[in-house]
């Protein structure tokens, strides 16, 4: 201590602290993206702009190259965390560029992710041989792209030769199905959140106020609760305090939904026992990051085991078309179904969330018809139960039946997409 009259006192001290020798690990095996530096190599300017905007929004430093030659020169000049390569380019394709990268001692350890508009026979094996860490087909959603990047970057550079390639299929398989309780009184906000989460593969229940949310938690098990702050009868803060008083609610993740993105809002929510908060209006990737990063799926909420038989009798449907002399239309019909199914599932989920019987019956009927046509009998039977219960006014039974619809519908869609990829590679 030093002290001088008229000037005050100066205190100093020293502490011996250990030095962190290893970088912190990130939750669920995914790497952080902020501050990373990436290179996009694609001759299509629009594709580069879309990718650049997706990445820049995550705080990623992005460089671009419009030719493979320029991309190779950039990789030799700058050290990148990852390079995204387009397969189809005029001077040399993405695989040729990847081969050149792996042959250069200075840059051979660069993480590579390939994007293509159409998969070709043998692409997966070429990726494994070249140590390409990710292979995605366009168009790619922002959430899938970011998840692929986080997964690739979570591995060490020495693993570049691993046979494991991150694809849209492996991303979907690694994503747990969560039981989500949405406490929200605004019908529009309900539909937005439900549509996003259902398309992501999660099961959603909706409560219109805090009291209903409390009753729902008492009656069922959930992986995470999305809690609006301003609701009638019992607001989000009151409901959270009541849930925390329950034995099963002590550690339940509760994410506040608030219309305010003000400084101190997160701290205010945490002080009321909430786990985190999300300001409205929110983007899909923001919602997914919080819901999936906060929740741990319960054993009871795990996805059903893989069926021993395919969820779609595609061969039976093929036979039906063949007998009518229209077999060539098979994959055109499958493509139509795959494109429309997510929207039909979301419409049914929105109706189930609001408990509107006529809307539930109508949405289930439309979805059931197309599902039965292509041979998805199990899904069609579930949808028929939803439709029948809803028309009879037994909303609870219809909502209970809908719980099983979402995971089976996603199994059907994934199976059909897989069959589409097989048909492409066989052509």
Could you describe the 3D structure shown?
With 427 residues, the protein is of the alpha/beta class. The strands form three sheets. A five-stranded parallel beta sheet has the order 4-3-5-6-7, with helices on both faces. Strands 9-8-10-11-12 form a five-stranded parallel beta sheet, sandwiched between helices. It has a two-stranded antiparallel sheet with strand order 1-2. The longest helix has 32 residues. The protein starts with a strand and ends with a helix. About 6% of the residues have low confidence.
Elements, N to C (H/E) = EEEHEHEHEHEHHEHEHEHEHEHHHHHH
- Report on the biggest sheet: 5 strands, parallel
Report the average pLDDT across residues.
83
Q: Going across the major beta sheet, what is the strand order?
A: 4-3-5-6-7
Structural shape: flat
Low-pLDDT regions: 18-29, 157-161, 299-308
Helix percent band: 40-55%
Q: Tell me the span between the first and last alpha carbons.
A: 82 Å
Q: What radius of gyration results from the CA coordinates?
A: 26 Å
């Amino acid at each position: 201590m030093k002290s001088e009259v008229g000037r005050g006192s100066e205190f100093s001290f020293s502490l011996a602290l250990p030095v962190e020798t290893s970088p912190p690990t990130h939750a669920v095996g995914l790497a952080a993206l902020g501050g990373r530096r990436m290179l996009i190599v694609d001759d299509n300017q629009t594709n580069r702009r879309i990718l650049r905007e997706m990445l820049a929004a995550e705080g990623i430093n992005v460089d671009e190259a419009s030719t493979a030659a320029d991309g190779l020169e950039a990789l030799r000049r700058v050290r990148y965390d990852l390079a995204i390569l387009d397969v189809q380019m005029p001077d040399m394709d993405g695989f040729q560029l990847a081969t050149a990268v792996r042959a250069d001692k200075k840059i051979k350890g660069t993480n590579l992710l390939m994007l293509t508009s159409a998969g070709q026979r043998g692409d997966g094996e070429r990726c494994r041989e070249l140590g390409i860490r990710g292979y995605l087909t366009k168009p790619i959603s922002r959430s899938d792209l970011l998840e692929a990047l986080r997964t690739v970057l979570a591995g060490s550079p020495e693993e570049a030769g691993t046979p494991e390639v991150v694809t849209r299929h492996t991303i979907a398989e690694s994503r747990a199905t969560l039981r989500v309780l949405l406490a929200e009184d605004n019908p529009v906000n309900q539909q937005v959140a439900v549509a996003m989460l259902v398309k992501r593969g999660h099961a959603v229940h909706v409560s219109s106020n805090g009291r209903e949310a409390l009753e729902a938690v008492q009656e069922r098990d959930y992986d995470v609760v999305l809690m609006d702050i301003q609701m009638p009868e019992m607001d989000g803060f009151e409901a959270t305090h009541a849930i925390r008083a329950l034995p099963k609610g002590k550690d339940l993740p509760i994410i506040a939904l608030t219309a305010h993105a003000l400084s101190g809002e997160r701290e205010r929510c945490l002080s009321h026992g909430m786990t985190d908060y999300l300001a409205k209006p929110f983007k899909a990737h923001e919602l997914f990051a919080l819901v999936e990063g906060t929740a741990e799926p319960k054993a009871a909420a795990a996805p059903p085991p893989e069926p021993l038989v395919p969820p779609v009798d595609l061969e039976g449907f093929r036979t039906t078309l063949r007998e009518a002399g229209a077999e060539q239309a098979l994959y055109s019909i499958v493509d139509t179904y795959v494109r429309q199914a997510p929207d039909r599932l979301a419409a049914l989920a929105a109706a189930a969330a609001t408990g509107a019987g006529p809307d539930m019956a109508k949405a289930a009927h439309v979805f059931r018809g197309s599902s039965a046509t292509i041979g998805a009998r199990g899904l069609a039977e579930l949808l028929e139960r939803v439709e029948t219960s809803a028309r009879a006014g037994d909303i609870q039974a219809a909502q209970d039946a809908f719980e099983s619809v979402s995971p089976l519908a996603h199994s059907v869609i994934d199976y059909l997409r897989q069959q589409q990829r097989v048909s492409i590679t066989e052509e």
